[in-house]
What does this fold into?
Amino acid sequence: MSDAEARHANTLGAAPVLSVRGLCKSFGALTVAQDIELDLPGGARIGLIGPNGAGKTSFVNLLTGMLRPDAGSVLLEDRAIDRLRPELRVRRGLVRTHQINTLLAETPALENVAIAIAERKRIGWRMLRYGTGWRACLDEAEARLAAMGLGDDRLRLVRELPYGKQRLLEIAIALALKPRVLLLDEPAAGVPAGETRAIHEQLGDLPQDVAILMIEHDMDLVFRFAREIVVMVQGRVLTRGSPSEIANDDRVREVYLGRRVR
Amino acid sequence: MNPERSRATRSPPAEKPHAAGWGHLLPWTAALAFYFLGADFLGLGTNALIMVLFALSLDLVLGYAGIITMGHAAFFGFGAYAAGLCAIHVTNDPVTGLLIATAAAGILGFVTGTLILHTKGVTLMMLTLAIGALVAEVANHLRDYTGGDDGLHGIRMAPLLGAFRFDLWGHTAYLYTLAVLLAWFALAWRIMRSPFGRSLDGIRQNVRRMRAIGTPVWWRMVAVYSLGAAMAGTAGALSAQTTRAVGLTALELLASGTVLMVLILGGTRRLYGAFAGAVVYVVVQDFAAQVDPFRWMFVIGALLMAVVLFLENGLMGIIDFAAARARSLWREQTPR
It folds into this structure.
């Protein structure tokens, strides 16, 4: 068996990295999640689509612990993480990016990445003896920014960076945390059409073993990136399947794609 | 000259280590020079140094971590009473008293911090105000221990390290205070550049970002709040030991407001801002009060307004500006 085949068999046979069981959440009469079931095996590339207000971002917030579900359970590598606070879920490898840039605007790009690395290495508490540890974080951050094509911008303050580069920085920070599961909340949102190419390229280069769930409205991006697509409507999973199945699904066309004539 | 040093001066790196070195030398040399030149004003100088330390402690909490507190004097006063009571009832060794007072204020900071730091914004501000008022009221009621309105008197300190008496002119007090300030300053300088310090800077800017990278935000805030409280406790203890008295004014809400004013005047998140603010405040207070004992606060108020309205980074903003001008002039005069 070749390496590639072995890896393929492994992803199919292995237990899912992330499992979602019967997740429910309502705000009064508004239901944002209704009995959601989802498995992400290692190396998964799942696209999550649905009209505005379908509950996609709420779903990410439920997974990361920013919202508390009314019912259901989230398992990360077979362990229930429902009671863990958001930062502890991050430490277990459940990492997200934000739909709207959530960065340290008054801090250089390099340091934005380096402090994430420091937390990953569990040296975020060091107050006095940190010289070599912190330098290692800066070196790794520099390499990661260079890999993202942000090498020349590493010393610029984040607020001085163009929006597209800030989007890339969001992804660079998430990757610096070495996630097992990566939740990308509209990575291309707000980026002018001409500038999305860099983001497309970087998403293609993401580490193969990481399970990735991507929310995105840019259909080109979703259909190129995802191997499976999940369609959400009003807090429910409407249907799921390969990109070609979804593209030819009448119900999906009706609720979602129908509005944008392809 | 060793090779490493010459390399540092030849190439102009982004960090400019030699420039930072000069920046450090200036305030500390001035503080030491004052000991020799300002012999008649050493008491005033000691007060200024204590105010520097107090404002420095607020800079950690408010400047770096962004915890807006209106009750910081609670820790200063708590440290002052702890040091005073320790000197009267336990031991009058100054260093032991200082350490005890520092630990006591730090513990008070930890306990109150765990209670209030899950809140934010105006709620948090009100809670810090409430705790400040509570501590002041407790001190007022425990007359038997604190002397209430009359204050705590009869503090007699043993010679520092068993060798240096606290003399009438304040020589020992000044150098003692300066040494303690230097120690805390070096510690604060180091900590604020650590991964811990940088995470505080991040928490001030964007809590969601810090949660998303797995930072235990609440614990970090409790930690820096306790650290700032301990530091303020040291300042209070120095005040009790060098003036040999503690009054309720040490922990009144007005004192919390004063230290806030001093920090904003000097400039936040600089550490040296506390120096500039405290020195200017103490000097203006002293001279303006001599000219007009009733309206000296007007001068301070006008100064604060001018600084807040026209200078982005407090008095340190002037120094930044002057340094930038000097650098550009230097560059013009020495063409490559």
Q: What stands out?
A: The interface with chain A takes residues 14, 187, 190-191, 194-199, 201-202, 205-206, 208-209, 211-217, 220 of chain B (CB under 8 Å). Residues 30-251 of chain B form one domain. The first helix of chain B runs from residue 3 to 10. DSSP finds 15 helices and no strands in chain B.
